[in-house]
Input
Amino acid sequence: MIEEIQRHSEALAPRFDGYRRRALAIGLIGIAATVFGYLTDHQQFFESYLLGFTYWVCMPVGCLGVLMIHHLGGGRWGFAIRRMLEAGASTMPVMFILGLPILAGMHDLFPWTHTEAVANDEVLTHKLPYLNSTFFIIRYVAYFAIWTAMAMLLTRWSVQQDQTQETWPTRRMQILSGPGIVLLSLLGTFAGTDWLMSLEPHWFSTIFCAIYILGMALMTWAFMTLVGVPLSKHQPLDVLLTNERLRDLGTMMLGFVMLWAYTSFSQLLIIWSGNLPEEITWYYTRLQGGWLYLGYALIGFHFAVPFLLLLSSRVKSHLRILIVVASGLMFMRLVDLYWITAPAFRDHDGGVLQSVALTPHWLDLAAPIGLGGIWVFFFFGQLKKRPLVPSNDPRFDYGALAAEAQEHGHHG
Amino acid sequence: MNDTSTGNGAHGLMAEFETPDELLAAAQKTYGEGYRRLDAYSPLPVHGLGAAIGFPQTNIAVISFICGVIGGLAGFALQYWVHMIEYPINIGGRPHFSGPMFIPVTFETTILFAAVGTVVALIVLNRLPQPYHPVFNVPEFERASQDRFFLCVESTDPQYETEGTRSFLQSLGPVKVSEVEA
Amino acid sequence: MPEATERRPYDQPTEELGPGQTSYTSITDKITSVVLTPHTPIQWFIVVAIGLCFVGLLQIAIAYLLYEGVGIWGLNVPVGWGFAIINFVWWIGIGHAGTLISAVLLLFRQKWRTSINRSAEAMTIFAVLCAGMFPVLHTGRPWLALYWLFPYPNSMAIWPQFRSPLIWDVFAVGTYLTVSLLFWGVGLIPDFATYRDKARNLLTKRIFGFLSLGWRGSAIHWERYEMASLILAGLSTPLVLSVHSVVSFDFAVSIIPGWHTTIFPPYFVAGAIYAGFAMVLTLMLPLRALYGLHDFITDRHLDNMGKVMLVAGMIVGYGYFMEQFMAWYSASIYENFLMDNRMFGPYGGSYWALLTCNIFVPQLLWSKRVRTSPYLIFMVSMFINVGMWLERFIIVVGSMHRDYMPSSWDMYSGTIWDWALYLGTMGFFLLAFFLFVRAWPLIAIHEIRTLLPTGKKH
Output
């Protein structure tokens, strides 16, 4: 059976190489444009680059989280996408390198790096033990070190599981995943605080990072759908990624769309009704002028439309609709992060209510596209490395499944 | 009650089976034979049984959705009307139209209407409560809610013909075939 | 496939159904035997007697409250909300596990839910009834509460304030109770039919016949029934999230430090699930022993419930952590004072007890041995029951007793009437639950039947 999976998986390699070539071409063009942007407007470059980074870093971290949930839960959907999740999580070092320019641009991005401003600001002085450049860099390295270590361990054990009938790799993956998911959430929280919340260092919200983490998971489900639907037509995943399993992916997207809406709405309602000066400023800028309409677009296309489409299982069974919804959600995640990050740069005074114009820059698209191309290139590189279906997991028998599918195929 | 008395007003003939799979296979065969007025009875939901006796997909979901939309609109309209039209009053400096604060009640009424609509639809479409039904006349039928599975061909079926139908049902290998008094 | 047979031994999850149950007949007989018998275990009478005593206490507490007014409670000026809100939140949280088990686990196709969903739903309904008593009674004049709470045209031409979370509560809890009753009732119909057909006593037969609405198990009915159950589950899932979120809004939309924080909705929901599962175990373990239901509530159930508690507990822990971290990060002197006071102030002991009950002790649940040991998991559940009450105590009293002006600081403690009312609702809960167990199907029989190999869905 393993040899068969191996053979089928290898047969798909040319297809993956095709994806890689295209992704690399798009990525390099995007990066070239972004570099050009740096030469013309380096402030805007860093802002757009941060958007691209905080967007794409969701992929490996989200994949790692969903992978751990799979190891703990062990549903059949997990076996269908486990290798994709592992490939996603394995790209962690790539994101580490791609994120380094953020460290270089700290001074342009984060007001709390301006020592003279911090000295005159009681609030920022109070936060100095956490919000200072050295610790920020240490944390950045630490997040990626721990994430990478966890991703590498899970991937390695998964490969070892393929090769042995023993159950110790399975056990180890489960043992790591329990505390792993706790650690991942905590690190995600600090990362969200560092990279997004501290852009407006006076502002704080206890649920903010949870929204970011849920967004990571949502993006992961959307991306898994985008990769999974074409793969479902080929061996070896055809028997696993049945229409029912693909619909499950749609259901997961539905669930996380609802969770995103729920947490985002909770934050809005609580801050809006409290109306405290230290909190409401964040929403004040985002509920003015063009930003308000962008907010409405988020309600419509990050929640209402995908929600209604995914609600009906009949609609969900149309793979084309699933693809459209998943692509739409990928794009809306970017819009959401744009809505979170961009207004912050228009208001560096902190704590002052002001309206800012919605002025999108071409770099806001170029940077995410460039980073995305590179990331997708490495993702398929990783996906190519291992058979697409894990073997020897005691909870799951691919052979029986394939035999059953074949039997059904003979029946008609 | 395995007698052969053939009251003209019989409700139909009922075959008794021991497992869901037997019932499902029998239902499919009976439907394939051309019988259309049939019903199957089981102590647990059997997947695909409705389809086997030719029941199209139920439309309860549509009813729930419509009820939910009505509920949401009604809840929102109530709040809008109360705070914008009927008695606008400034409390704590909040705007008359406090959009985010109207969402919780709107949400709850959506769910309330949808849930009530679903249950009412379930009861009404199933024609419940219905304390009397001819199938209860078969003494063995009390096991339909415990551990036995029944298939009933009703006498209104154009193909129904007491002896022929009985022998057809016998050929399906049931525990027993009984006539259902009307 | 030779590989499939050569598997190394691995801890496969225990079956949802114990070895004693092999046929539809045995399942039906075993479950109906709890109700359709003249024999009642002596323990049942003891519990019901205790329940009745406390219901008597409840009646006295309510009567004196209505006679004398809410002044008999321990409320004072900085602490304007006391036991009433604590107990309201505690009870409503307990209810959430029932909905989670019956709805959310149905959507996740978790088969193990089938043997506990019915009693957990019953628990939901009784817990919501207990919860509902407090807000109604705290108005002091409950007979007037109707027009304070419900929007209907009245002679004073005034309407409820829809911008107030207290009115959202009315809608949320009202909807929750209604939908839970509907879900419960729909599930009971086919089981009532079983009892009707199984009963030998004519009166019993008539009663269950009436309740079963003439259910006859028609395939077409089942088809609609399954769809309706799925829809109700789909509706209950966001509903259960919304209810405790709305409860958290009672606090969070205000601007009191300790209450006004954005993590409250999900953190309250997780806390509710946490408390609810603890209560399910608190009730189910003795019940299992009493009626010998070991085939229906297996190690698998304990293990899974332990895992759910662990996850919920970790989310609650995340909430505690975020409150602390963001209080520091906010650099707000009020937030910082509050957290300092919470840990080291006059109620500091309660806070550390809370952390012990809700965070430290439940870490035992990481061990499978603890999760599958009835005694140990029961003990952990008791800690959580207490811990979740303390959590609400800390949130309510801890945040209010020292407000912005030190001259108005005060201490709060419940009076004997506060405790009487609280213990009284516990008695009511116990009584209602045990009456339910004796008279109605405590396990969803028709769903249990689908666990047998021949009944499994493909």
Summary: The mean pLDDT of chain B is 89. Helices of chain B lie at 20-32, 49-52, 60-86, 99-125, 162-170.
